[in-house]
Every structure is written in C-alpha cells, then in structure tokens.
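TA notes, week 10

Several of you asked for a full example with nothing omitted. So below is the full record: structure tokens for the whole chain, then the designed sequence directly under it. When grading your own attempts, check the secondary structure regions first.
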C-alpha cells in the first residue's frame, strides 16, 4: 500500500532542539512513524552563540557509532550558533531558518514576509513565555550592550568599534520598536498566554500583533520530508557555514 510505513522504511533519528519548541516537538514526535531519541537545550544557552554551538556539537559527537539515520537540529542560525557545526559519521539535517521565529511561522517565506523590514522585531510564543524569564524576544535591544555576552564575544573577535557596529546592525538597538508580534500555533495554543502578552505590549505602549503560526516546517523535519529548498543535509566530514540571505540561509563546506 502506497505511503504505508514498515519496519524497513522507518528511520531511527536523533533530535536536538531548543526547549522553546518543546510543545511543538512533542506533538509531532507522537505522530511520526520514525523512532526518536530527543535532547533539548535550555533557552538561556542562546546567550552566547559559542556556548550553544559547543553544546550542540557535543551532542552531535555523542551520536557517533549509534547507527542513527540522521541527526536533526531544530534551530535556526540563532546568532551564528549553528555556524561551524561538523557532521561526524552521520548526516545532520538543519532547517533553512534565521531563528526559532521561522520555525514557529512554518517557513522562511513567512519570516521574510513579516520580519524582513525589521529582523529584530520583538516576538513571543507560548514556548518562549514558558521557557524564559522575559515574556518576549526583543532582539536584545532592552539589554545593556556593554554587559551583553553576545557583544563581548564580538569584541573579542573583531575589536570594539566593529563589535558595536555588528551588534547594533544585528539587534536593532537604535530602533524604537512599536510592535510586539505574538505567534501562536493552533495545535499548541495555550489559554491565557496571548492575553498576558497583549497586556505586556500595552504596558510597553506597543501595538500587539497576533500571527497564526504553523507546524509545517517542523513537521517536515520530524517526518523526514527534507526538501533541499527548506533543509540543509550536511554530509559527514562537512561543516555548516552561514549564507545570511532569505533563500539559502545556511550552507556547508569541507571540514
């Protein structure tokens, strides 16, 4: 019968994901025919991209010799956290996404539609509200730049002047945000979170903009529908590199 999964075509997969996606990941893994081992990293791991990159690489390395069909990463570029990751003896599948906002919206096309003019636009979601001290992601614009670990990492690599320019460009610290986008996926909707986020927006004198999200991109990742326009399939002995456009987003190169 066409489309019927059997033991022969069921994959054994390792999934490494940010815990803001816990609700979405769990509902999809419960439906997929494939066999999953899952690990989550804490939201605060994003505070330094080198820290999150190290954590993900360690988890990839521990998959060596375990006969997984693939290692799946439920992350976007996330401030370069997934740039420079290496596949060992197993292929690694990475969504073509700038950050978790793309994963919540369901496609890079919807991210471009709603965020191209302001990539640091504040947004929230049920997972973000559950897994973070802050109610919404604000592009780091509310933090003191001089104390922000991301800025300090740039200083170490590029010098203070260049670090300041990169930080302000990436995080929109000079932009006064007047909107707060709330992304809610119907299947993982949480009663009360939208209203709480709306109240926070009103307190900050920001316009509250609700958007309906989609499981489409995460579903394709978890179900094994890795279309090349939406996913990078990293072969063993290759590593990821940033592309930073709105189409390819992430690429690969030899180790």
């Amino acid at each position: 019968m066409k489309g019927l999964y059997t033991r022969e075509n069921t994959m054994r997969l390792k999934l490494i994901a940010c815990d803001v996606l816990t609700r979405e990941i769990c509902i999809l893994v419960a439906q997929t025919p494939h066999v999953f081992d899952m690990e989550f990293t804490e939201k605060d791991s994003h505070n330094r991209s080198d820290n999150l990159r190290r954590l993900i690489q360690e988890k990839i390395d521990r998959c060596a010799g375990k006969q997984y069909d693939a290692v799946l990463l439920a992350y976007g570029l996330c401030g370069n956290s997934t740039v420079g990751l290496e596949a060992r003896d197993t292929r690694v599948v990475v969504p073509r996404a700038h950050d978790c906002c793309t994963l919540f919206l369901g496609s890079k096309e919807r991210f471009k539609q709603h965020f191209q003019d302001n990539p640091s636009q504040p947004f929230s979601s049920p997972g973000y509200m559950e897994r973070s001290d802050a109610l919404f992601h604000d592009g780091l614009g509310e933090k003191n730049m001089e104390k922000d670990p991301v800025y300090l990492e740039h200083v170490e690599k590029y010098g203070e002047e260049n670090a300041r320019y990169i930080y302000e460009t990436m995080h929109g610290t000079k932009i006064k945000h007047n909107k707060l986008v709330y992304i809610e996926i119907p299947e993982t909707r949480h009663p009360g979170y939208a209203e709480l986020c709306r109240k926070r927006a009103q307190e900050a004198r920001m316009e509250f903009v609700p958007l309906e999200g989609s499981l489409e991109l995460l579903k394709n990742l978890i179900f094994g529908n890795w279309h090349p326009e939406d996913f990078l399939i990293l072969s063993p002995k290759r590593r990821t590199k940033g592309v930073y456009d709105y189409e390819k987003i992430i690429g690969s190169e030899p180790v």
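The beta strands are 12-18, 35-41, 70-74, 92-95, 123-124, 179-184, 207-212, 231-234, 238-242, 250-254. Use that as a sanity check on your answer.
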